[in-house]
Amino acid sequence: MRERVIRGRLLDFEDAQGEDGVPAHRYVEDGALLVRDGRIAAAGAWAEVAPLAPLAEVADHRHCLILPGFIDAHIHF
Fold first, then answer.
1. Cβ contacts of residue 64 below 8 Å, gap of 6+?
2. Are 68 and 6 in contact (CB under 8 A)?
3. 17-52: buried (b, 16+ CB within 10 Å) or exposed (e) per residue?
4. Which among 28, 45, 68, 73 could bridge 10 via Cys, Cβ 3.0 to 4.6 Å?
5. CA dist., res. 57 & res. 25, Å (int)
6. 73 Rama sector, left if φ>0, alpha if ψ -120 to 50, beta otherwise
7. For residue 14, what is the enclosing H or E element?
8. Which DSSP symbol is given to 69?
9. pLDDT tens for residues 41-66?
């Protein structure tokens, strides 16, 4: 099993909008994304995700924004 943890600022969306009408999103300043065999296995705070794979390779991208689950994420101006 290949494991990798990508560390950075994490932004994801749980639903189109929450119960109060506000978009339901999660932003974690020091976040992590655990990838096992090419699939997302866990996402959340670094302190919670890192212990799930103590021997995994860590890619430190704390200066970057990570958008898990987006395919071909890009911006149109």
1. 8, 9
2. no
3. eeeeeeeeeeebeebbbbbeeeeebbbbebeebbee
4. 28
5. 27
6. beta
7. strand 3-15
8. T
9. 999 999 999 999 999 999 999 999 99
Non-local (6+) Cβ contacts of 15 within 8 A are 24
pTM above 0.85, yes or no: no
The model's confidence at residue 34, banded by pLDDT at 50, 70 and 90, is: very high
Eight-state DSSP code of residue 67:
-
| CA trace torsion 17, 19, 21, 27 (10° rounding) | -50
Biggest CA–CA distance in the chain, Å, is 41
Residue type, 43: A
